[in-house]
Amino acid sequence: MSNPGPRMPVVALVSGRGSNLRAIAERARGGDPAIDIRAVVSDREDAGAIEWARSVSLNAATLSPKSFPDRDRYDAALAALVAGFEPRLVILAGFMRILGPNFVDRFAGQTLNIHPSLLPRHRGLHTHRRVLEAGERKHGASVHFVTRELDGGPVVIQARVPVRDDDDEASLAARVLKQEHRIYPQAVGWFASGRLRFADGAAWLDDKRLDSPVVIDPESDDAA
Ligand code: GAR
After folding, report:
1. Where along the chain do its domains lie?
2. What is the DSSP string of 98-164?
3. What architecture is domain 1-107?
4. pTM, entire model
5. Residue positions annotated with a catalytic role
6. Fewer Cβ close by (within 10 Å): the C or N end of the chain?
7. What is the pLDDT of residues 129-186, one digit of tens each?
């Protein structure tokens, strides 16, 4: 059933294959989340997500950091490019560059990111490897608002997955990714419908401050 109401303008930033973007776009075709993906923007010309965006006739743009003398100027140019599409929401979907204040402040309270760990554990890169090395039994993914602190903004929703004895990085990443495709469209849908917002440095869902994120623990259903 498609949603006849207004759709929220969204810009997606990507660096890689774009499976999260596709998961969101596929759900959006059914009307929830009620979004209009105005553009897909990448720092890498060779991103699979850009190829996919072109194949489905979405606006696709790349802005390579190599053309800029420093990060501040790159961030300012990226912010100007994104702002040109007039998004109400910016989604980072496997965007692998650290965004500085020039970008983050311009879209404060309207930028979401998906990160493959149970934040605040394992900010940064190689999260699956680090979970395995630490011998942890639980792992997962988080959707959070983007603030100046890397992977440090308020977390909206998390999905937990078990770590199995025979897991390697690839098997664990695949189990987490399946849950990413579930929680990211959910969070984007909440934002697009006005249920989720950012205020006073916190995430609010249905007018309640989220002091801890919504947690999905799919061990009881289809995570196996
Ligand atoms: C996802 O696992 C996402 O959580 C991660 O990159 C992958 C992108 O996959 N993002 C980060 O690590 C951000 N720090 P995708 O391109 O198939 O969506």
Report:
1. 1-107, 116-141+156-224
2. PP-HHHHTTTTTSEEEEESS-TTSS-SS-HHHHHHHTT-SEEEEEEEE--SSTT-SPEEEEEEEEPP
3. 3-Layer(aba) Sandwich (3.40)
4. 0.96
5. 115
6. N
7. 999 999 999 999 999 999 999 999 999 999 999 999 999 999 999 999 999 999 999 9
